[in-house]
Design brief:
The chain has helices at 3-30, 38-42, 47-76, 80-102, 106-130. By secondary structure, the chain is an all-alpha fold. The protein is elongated, with a radius of gyration of 16 Å.
């Protein structure tokens, strides 16, 4: 398995890590975790807990684009070393994005988002050149 595909696995896990973190915020802020209506309960969160939930939702959205980019690069036969650089940078950007989101660092969050998106675009460009 290539590094980019391993990074895809990590990207899949990021929203789940944020989900578990969100449960901790719900427990702390709301006194319990409502497993029957977790999304409805998450909407009651404020501050860092609400931002954690928003970061989780954004991680799911970013995962779709990254999955398409990695699959396209892989199927186009992009050199594994080239796709690895973009994929690893994407993971670093997405981890920074989640941390910045929770810590309310809006400019850093936006920068991390742009870097992550740029990595996906780079994978598509590499695929275009390889194909």
């Amino acid at each position: 398995m290539t590094t980019a595909l391993w990074c895809l696995l990590v990207a899949v896990l990021i929203p789940y890590v944020l989900s578990f973190s969100g449960a901790a915020f719900r427990q702390r802020e709301l006194g319990s975790v409502d497993n029957r209506n977790p999304r409805q309960q998450a909407l009651q969160l404020t501050g860092a807990g609400a931002r954690c939930y928003a970061a989780q939702q954004n991680a799911w959205e970013a995962l779709a684009v990254f999955t398409a980019a990695v699959a396209t690069a892989h199927l186009a036969g992009v050199d594994a070393a080239d796709s690895a650089i973009a994929a690893q940078l994407f993971i670093a950007a997405r981890v920074a994005h989640a941390g910045a989101y929770i810590l309310d660092k809006d400019k850093l969050r936006s920068l991390a988002f742009i870097v992550g998106l740029g990595c996906c675009i780079a994978l598509f460009v590499l695929a275009g050149r390889a194909g």
